[in-house]
Amino acid sequence: MIGFSYLLWTGLCYAVMSLVTFIIYAADKRAAKRGAQRIPEATLHLLELAGGWPGGLVAQRLMRHKNAKVSYQIVFWLIGAVHLAGWIAVLRWR
After folding, report:
1. 67 SS3 class
2. Distance (Å, rounded) from C-alpha 92 to C-alpha 94?
3. What's the rounded Cα separation, in Å, for the pair 12 and 80?
4. What's the number of CA atoms in the CB half-sphere (13 Å) around residue 26?
5. How far is Cα 31 from Cα 38, in angstroms, rounded to an integer?
6. Which of the chain's ends, N or C, has fewer CB atoms near its CB within 10 Å?
7. CB atoms within 10 A of CB 87
8. How many CA atoms lie within 13 A of 4 on its CB side?
9. Tens digit of each residue's pLDDT (9 = 90 or more) over 40-90
10. Residue 34: HSE in the Cβ half-sphere, 13 Å Cα cutoff
11. Strand, helix or coil at 65?
12. Contacting residues for 91 by C-beta, under 8 A, at least 6 apart
């Protein structure tokens, strides 16, 4: 069985990475508006893969950032699917 402390720490990691990812999305959106140097998409995807995809999703919806670019969205949702598959595997084989 998955312990409460495992779930607590995992949830905390998702929360922290989501906050970091949200902040980085906001910085990229600001840079885009100013015409300044942007944050590479690979960096955003790495943050999402590290657990920040919920924060990325919220940022996309609130800031309307990166939500119209199809190639970006494909990778974003694949990352979400990887996380979902991981949770299914963990919960199934606990």
Report:
1. coil
2. 6
3. 18
4. 9
5. 6
6. N
7. 11
8. 0
9. 999 999 999 999 999 999 999 999 999 899 999 999 999 999 999 998 998
10. 10
11. coil
12. 2
pTM equals 0.91
Asked if residue 93 lies in contact with residue 87, where contact means CB atoms within 8 angstroms, the answer is no
Buried b (16+ CB within 10 A) or exposed e, 40-57: eeeebbebbbebbbbbbb
**Nearest 5°: phi and psi at 20?**
-60, -45
pLDDT tens sequence across 8-42: 999 999 999 999 999 999 999 999 999 999 999 99
Amino acid letter, residue 19: L
Q: Which two tokens stand for residue 83?
A: 């996380």
Whether the CB-CB separation of 56 and 47 falls below 8 Å is answered with yes
Distance, CA of 71 to CA of 60 (rounded, Å): 14
Question: What backbone torsions phi and psi does residue 30 show, to the nearest 5 degrees?
Answer: -60, -45
